[in-house]
Amino acid sequence: MAEEAAYGARTFGVEVRFLVLDSSDAASAAEHREVVAALPAAPGVVVHHLDEDEQRAFLRAVIDRSGVAAPDRVLDLMLPDRASYGACTNRAFLLAEALGCASVHRRDSDSRYQQLDGEPVFPIHHELAALGLRAADAAGLVSRSRLDPTSAHRPVSLVGGSFVGAMSVDVEEIRRLDPEVYEEVVGLSIPSGHPDVWRRNLIAQSFRGAGTTPYNGDLTTLTSVSPTRVDMCNIALHREVYGRVPLPPATDTIGSDYFLVHLVQNARLPGVLHNRHIVNFHTGERRSDEGFLAYQLRFAKFLLSTPHFDAVHTAAKEAGDGLLDAGGRLRAAAVAGLVRDGARADRAANAARLDVLDRSYRSLGGRYATAADVLAPLRERLLDEARRDMEEFALLIEAWEALTGASRSARPPGGARVHTVAYATGGEERRGPVTMGQANMIRCMLRDEPEHINIHDVWPVPAGTTEDAAVEALRTLAVRHEALRTTFPHAAGSAPREQAVATGGTFTVTVLDHEDLPEDPAGYADALARGARAERFRLERDFPLRVRLVARSGAPVFAAMAASHAVTDVGALAVLKEEWLGLLAGETLPPPASLTPLALAAEEAAPAGLRRSAASLRHWERIIRTEPQAMFAEPGAEGTDVPTPGLTLRSRRAARALARVAERTGGMPATVLLTAWCALVAHRADQPVCVAAVPTSNRYHPRLARSVNTLSQDALLSLDVRVPSFDALLKKAWGAALNAYRHSQFDAVALWEMIGETTRERGSRFARDVVFNDVSTLPPTVAAVTSAAGPETADEDGTAGLDLRWGPGQVLPTRVLTFVHAIEPELHLAAWLDPALFTADQAEAFLTGLVRLLEAAAEDDVPLAELTRMTGVGPVDRGPDWHRVDGSWTSPPLVARALSEALRGLPVHVTAGPPGPDGGPAEDGGRSEDGGLTAYVAAGDRTLTPAAAHTALMDALPGRPGVLAPRRYVIVQRPPAEADRTSAWLRQQILREGTGRDRDVT
Question: What is the band of 451 on the pLDDT scale with cuts at 50, 70, 90?
Answer without folding.
Answer: confident
